[in-house]
Amino acid sequence: MDTHSAVVERLRSSFVAGVTKTEVFRQTQLMNAMSMLKENEQKIIDAMHKDLAKPKFEALLSEFEMVINEIHYAITNLSTWMKPEYVSTNLATKFDDCFVRREPLGVVLVIGPWNYPLQLLFLPMIGAIAAGNCVIIKPSEVSPAAEALIAELVPKYLSQDCYAVVTGGSEETVALLKNRFDHIFFTGSQTVGRSILQAASVHLTPVTLELGGKSPCMIFGQMNVTVVIRRLMWAKFFNAGQSCVAPDYVLCTPPARDAMLPEISKVLEEFYTTDPQASPDYPRIVSPRHWTRLMDLLKKSKGRVVVGGGGSPEDRYIAPTVLVDVPADDALMQEEIFGPILPILTVGSVEEAIEFVKGREKPLAVYVFSNSSAVVNQVLENTTSGGFCSNDGIVHITLPTLPFGGVGASGFGSYHGRWGFETFSHRRACMLRGWALERLNGLRYPPYTENKLYWLRWSTSPKSSCSIL
């Protein structure tokens, strides 16, 4: 087996040789990636079920279709993305070709998480391939079935001279990070993100961090409660709450909370029956360690459990759980929950909810449910987050024309669609000059005079359009 440095050097040799730069090569690899998924759909479903007990429905929607759609979008638009972007000029550069050229960065590293082990690894990889880079991907060892499947399939379908998979745990990741990369893309926790930044700083490597945080959901107004709760419960308990963009907690008024509670019980029973543990549509917590962390948080909480609260360590099962009377300094409010536990906090107004959110770290997403466009816009204008969605949850990340990424503590940098291509591209400023206007160029040469300076400043300054009144 090649050492990490040998893998990096093999890929770097291919990049230096220009293997990945042509559009034909990039399109071919993207189409091969499409074939990899389509020809192994059942294997993907099985791996997702083995790691997280993901139902086929959720596995195909979140791990399969999103990646297929991303590949298709990249294939369709790659030719346009690769074209030079011509920019405006001034009088002094009127006869020059001035443009921005997107060029690949080199050998890049993509480190994926365990909660969506294919989607969150392959989507940035697609952006990197489209941009013409060589790519090393590091799947998470916490989802071992997906890790093994990725390590099996990628070398079969993609060029082994340009793309590689490195497996293993934290020790392997630390060793891998000692190598020099041209970009590192990491999805995971804030704690590990800090370590990634420190490792990247040794080589001055640029980094994209896709982290997480406590994404709030505000509910204000007179709406169809059943519709609100269906959308909220689906967004929260999809993948058993193990989503970085899942609503982390709810902010609403006491009357709104009281109106929602009966509907929450009804909808959860509608979704997962009276026994969610027996439902084929309800996933499991990824590992015993993560199960213990969540149950410890629940035990420490001062809130009152109104739905769920139970669990089974042998099955890694935690019931869909909702709590009320949760204080602002509760254990559940100190870190991202990342599981099927939803605290409901009460406030007196939209303004109070906004101030509550602004008083904490910037989240990956902000959600607001309201029948008032004024309320929606008020929340939008007065909060900051990686993404924003009104009257629904998590669906904004499915659109490849929208950037996906965090801000502040929830991360920096973005991807999906064109945004992923840009993340893995260097925007090179280019000016192709001819030999014309040498008399004008002569204004810059010594000996300097006030007259030369006047005309040079005039030729390079912005010119306002004039109109005759």
Concise overview:
By secondary structure, the chain is of the alpha/beta class.
Counted beta strands: 20
Mind summarizing the main beta sheet? 7 strands, mixed
How helical, in percent, are the residues?
A: 40-55%
List low-confidence stretches.
none
Rg value: 26 Å
The backbone outline, from C-alpha atoms, is globular
What distance lies between the first and last C-alpha atoms, to the nearest angstrom?
Answer: 78 Å
Strand content: 15-25%
Spatial strand order of the main sheet: 10-13-14-9-8-15-16
Tally of individual helices: 16
Mean pLDDT: 96
Helix vs. strand class? alpha/beta
Question: How do the helices and strands line up, and which of them pair or pack?
Answer:
Elements: H1 4-16, H2 23-38, H3 41-52, H4 56-82, E1 85-86, E2 97-104, E3 107-111, H5 119-130, E4 134-138, H6 144-157, E5 163-165, H7 170-176, E6 183-187, H8 190-201, E7 207-210, E8 216-219, H9 225-237, E9 249-252, H10 254-272, H11 288-300, E10 304-307, E11 311-312, E12 317-318, E13 321-324, E14 341-346, H12 350-358, E15 365-369, H13 373-382, E16 387-390, E17 404-405, E18 411-412, E19 414-415, H14 418-423, E20 425-432, H15 438-441, H16 450-460
Parallel strand pairs: 3-4, 3-6, 4-5, 6-7, 8-9, 8-15, 9-14, 13-14, 15-16
Antiparallel strand pairs: 1-2, 2-20, 7-18, 10-13, 11-12, 17-19
Helix pairs in contact: 2-4, 2-6, 3-4, 3-6, 4-5, 9-10
